[in-house]
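Q&A log
Question type: sequence-to-structure
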Amino acid sequence: MNLRKYLVLLGVVIFGATGDAFLSRGMKNLGSISLHHWPQIILAVLHPWVAFGVMLLIAFFAAYMTALSWADLTYVLPATSIGYVLLAFIAKFMLHENVTTTRWLGIALIAAGVGFVAGGPANTHVPSETAAEGQASSRAGLTNVKTGGPKIWLG
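Response status: OK
Response body:
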């Protein structure tokens, strides 16, 4: 992987963790909101902390989509789950939440799992289409679109 791809994964981690933290702070400031009062949920987006959290989560989603365009989900999701570690530190020291020993242990296990995933390849091998599959898809009216990644079949 090149530096640009590592920066995209870093963006997923940072935008996700900080976006969640800002969203949490804003929602705590607003107080309890019920799903039965959906206008309150819509108006909550106008709160500055919530709005900034949503913007960061949109950036997270853009970076996440970018990462998924060149790597398997089974690589991207665990590799970016290191964001849980960052989020725990943000929650503890900036949001002043009580992070229990059990949670810290779980976060340590997640971090260890990231090490296992990061050592593997970003993509798994996708076998090429056989001639019989190609003929069957042509008869069915399906079009094979090559995207540089997995095959996408469009009707």
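Response note: The two ends are 33 Å apart (CA to CA).
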